[in-house]
Structures
1.
Amino acid sequence: MKKNILKLTLLFLVSLSLSAMDSIGSSVRLLNQEVVMSEVSTSSANVSFKQKKEGRRLDVTIDSAFLSSDWVPHSFTFTPSASGRVNIEFRGTKGAPENLYIAYDSLTAEGAVLRNGSFEDFAPEKPNPKFWWGGFKQEQVIKHSEHAQSGSTFVLTRYGQGVRTNMQVTANQPVTISYYIRRVTLAPAK
């Protein structure tokens, strides 16, 4: 209990404006070797798309200058060329200082099934929420209803410490991924 209180105190102690040196963006990566993701669009401002591997990898990036310390909704849509399983990873961008994170919560998919996007259900005796994997560390999963966008749990990510899941998509059926993000600055450890 004391560890969680200390973690939350550190988590919300510092929320500074970004300077040029303190930049971190949001990065969402979709990948499947057989499914081309096309007709990519967004209703969110300041989002860029980069397709690689002939459209089989899609990177969705939100510029660091537009990330807030408040929860902000974002979404994007793509159309898969074939039915199959698409891996999706949510993380921060490269080059961020050690105390800057991107928090994600309330992830949903319209046109596909994205399981446990609120991170509320947990695998028995594991630090990670059910259906999510990656280099999860206990401190990446924050349980605090006053600071979560919905429910009581959200996750912190960085480049190299993302959270991953997969979803089944159907050929030629548009998929809209919606999520909330915020920038989190942790106080340096003493």
2.
Amino acid sequence: MALVVRQLNKEGIWEDIGNLFKNRNFILNLVAFTFLWGNYITFRNELTPLFALQFNSAEISIIGIIFVCFGAIACYVVGAFLDRTKKFIFTVRLISFALFLVFAAGLFVLPMGNFWITCCFAMLGGFANVPILPASLQYASTLTRSTPPTVTNGVMLSFAQTFSFAGSLITTQFLNFGQDYGLAFMAGTILIASICVSFVKAENEKGADLKFSVLTNEDDEDDEEGDDTEGGNSKK
């Protein structure tokens, strides 16, 4: 199969980035991804101050391992689901709302200080949080087909990493007042993400995605036609 790689805009990378922010759905998806992926990094950074008064170092490490491992498993599950259905908007919304419910519940169950309940929270939180990476990045690529995926994904990850840095500092300050305050801050950012994705318009998502290659930002149909042409020429 012929592989066609989309080149950078001749006007420069800043032109590509400027075009991204002309797309309303991209901006909403960007805000949601920034808060959700930023929350994932923030939670990992804040594990020790979040649970230091409840558990020892070994137990906190186990909680972190569960959070990361179940997130990795969820990525494979969600990736397979998206590959079959192409329901990117549905998946991003489901992840956002599910994660908000998990962290909202955490406000009530984590203060109990029960290790096994906290492990269950980490399992559900990781499973709901990490899949935003494949879901949101792939959806962004379908929205910005005139822009290389490297630029689109780079912008989104840059925003998320920046927020995670600020979010970790802010969460640390809230934790000085108590565990509830830090959890409330994280739950609040997830709620903002959920509100943003609820305003994303699902226009022609199914039809556009079915024939779209996220890897090359080109139509699969075009590649197939190219293969047929090459085959025809070789036969001649």
3.
Amino acid sequence: MDKKFPFPTSTVNQLINTLENIPPEGITSDELCEKMKCTKKDLSKVIPFLRYLNLIDIKEGKIILTEIGKEFLDAPEKDRPKIFRKALLNSVFKDLLKLLDGKEFTLSELAHFFKNKLKSKGNLAVLKGYAVKLQTWLDYAGIATKKRIGREVKRFFSLKEKEEEVPKEEKVEAKEKFDNKFFYELGKLIGYIYAKSEKEPFLLSQIDKLAELSKEIDKEGIIAELLNVHKELFKELREPRIFIADIQLLEKKIQSSLK
């Protein structure tokens, strides 16, 4: 493996959201920041990975869609994972996927795999953050299969293509299940975090509550994993904004479930 392996700094939803904001005629980074109401620093966590996946290119100062990027956006939702999988398997990540093929890891084991097999010098908390984001990619592409063994959650990685039906009932259930109290509690927790409370123990307790609440809407538990990983990073960095991307991901998940 290349020692300069590009560890993912964005979830699959962040990749897709950015891709969906790129018009056919292309767009400058300044225009994209304005359109998405984000900073260039936020964009820098996503754009390089869209390029690694060959979903976009940059020409004459503009971010443009590649052919596979256009194919992805033009495809029905149910077909997008296969196109994303194709992009992954033809990208700089293909060697990593070959190493993962046939193996199963918990999140911690995957972080140790990064450290030992890929010779990464990052600390395990940071590597766990990369691992969670990579898992969202591989879950979406159908390369990772989540399974629970006792209290442990493992993912089995396989490059063998499989056919699977995605259940359609969840969206209907979501409309019935979430009442005003759920959204009140959710909004209150998010408000605490956006307020950047200086009382660290209090803030961390709100993150724990938000992680538990997120499992009601995110059955895979990806958002809870992200929040917990970033909670460990927060203890080192003391920067509450580290949670904002996770909150935005949760908000988008809620909006999607209620359509």
